[in-house]
Amino acid sequence: MTRFALTVIRHGETRLNKEKIIQGQGIDEPLSETGFKQAAAAGIFLKDVKFTHVFSSDLKRTKQTVHGILEKNKFCKDVTVEYDSRLRERKYGAAEGRPLSELRAMAKAVGEECPAFTPPGGETLDQLKMRGKDFFEFLCQLILKEASQNEQFSQDSPSSCLESSLAEIFPLGKNCASTFNSDSGAPGLAASVLVVSHGAYMRSLLDYFLTDLKCSFPATLSRSELTSVSPNTGMTVFILNFEKGGKGKPTAQCVCVNLQGHLAGRRPAPWVHTPHHPSHGHRVSSGNGIILAFYKRTQHRSILTSHFLCVSWGSIVVCTDPVTSLTTVFCRINTLRFISLFSHQWMFWFIQHFLNRNSASGSGLVLCWRKRASPV
């Protein structure tokens, strides 16, 4: 079996992104100041991941993004970036340089909806999908060829390091799935590939993985979330598995979709996946402490859910932070109040009581588990 990881990242923000102007392939806009900061944040987030192969669209905004990412990486400063036109954004023809609202109006005028509508001189969704498929098949053949020339990977080889570094970086949560399992008996990763591309291209690639490869996605993701456009520098990660001989289509599993926690300005701790994690429906082990944090339901909620292993029920978000101090993790959140609990029955009574009293107040409740040698 040959396995490799594929990390796909959208470019950073441009001025036209912010103004909702369609760029496509014909408008080669550079990153804005915000876009450069996003690329640097993505690089810091991925600084401990050793990418064996790096590819990028040959448009300016992706070139600048991949440079910003690799500049922060501990291992990839000297890596050669392969710029490939197959990774370009969808071609929007006559709509390029125009506001998104005009594209929607053009589609409405002929009784169609975006993104299925193809403007004059533009690229159809099928053409975009075939372009993505062509690049993906090229990539698979490249990895298989290189893997066949190397010795058999073992759990002590660098391939295992590739996998463990990814497992420490990408958390589990609503947008993530548990894929990195050192106890699975599977061989280590033969390669870790970074691809920097564009929003419509990434959405098309997700569709290809979903419909053609029957990729396994996190069960909590809805269809609309899978078809939404990635935010700037949003990250989607796949693990591809080829059976011995490398013939036929690979099996694919998605680790996360459009991850954007790095944009909050903090790099998450190395996450520890345990069988007692609440996402599995199990009780928290008695050796874990339970801490409640109150906060107003504002933009902070997205920051919290991006940085923890979490499961949510309405206004309740269940998170785990097994390594980092909670006071450090929540340092940017105001009006915090912590309470230590040791009774599961009392805890769930408290949740119900809290929701009854605060359902109309706009407050939220976060339950945070962390591994501790002694009670909180």
How do the helices and strands line up, and which of them pair or pack?
Layout: E1 2-10, H1 15-18, H2 33-45, E2 53-56, H3 60-72, E3 81-83, H4 100-109, H5 125-149, H6 158-169, E4 189-197, H7 199-211, H8 223-226, E5 235-242, E6 251-259, E7 288-296, H9 300-307, E8 309-313, E9 316-320, H10 326-329, E10 338-341, H11 344-358, E11 363-371
Parallel strand pairs: 1-4, 2-3, 2-4, 9-11
Antiparallel strand pairs: 1-5, 5-6, 7-10, 7-11, 8-9
Describe the protein in words.
By secondary structure, the chain is α/β, with parallel strands linked by helices. The protein has two domains: 2-263, Rossmann fold, CATH 3.40.50; 278-371, no CATH class. The protein has helices spanning 15-18, 33-45, 60-72, 100-109, 125-149, 158-169, 199-211, 223-226, 300-307, 326-329, 344-358, and strands at residues 2-10, 53-56, 81-83, 189-197, 235-242, 251-259, 288-296, 309-313, 316-320, 338-341, 363-371. The longest helix is centred in the middle third of the chain and has 25 residues, at 125-149. Residues 153-158 and 266-376 have low confidence and may be disordered. Interacts with HK2; the interaction increases hexokinase HK2 activity in a hypoxia- and HIF1A-dependent manner, resulting in the regulation of mitochondrial membrane potential, thus increasing NADPH production and decreasing intracellular ROS levels.
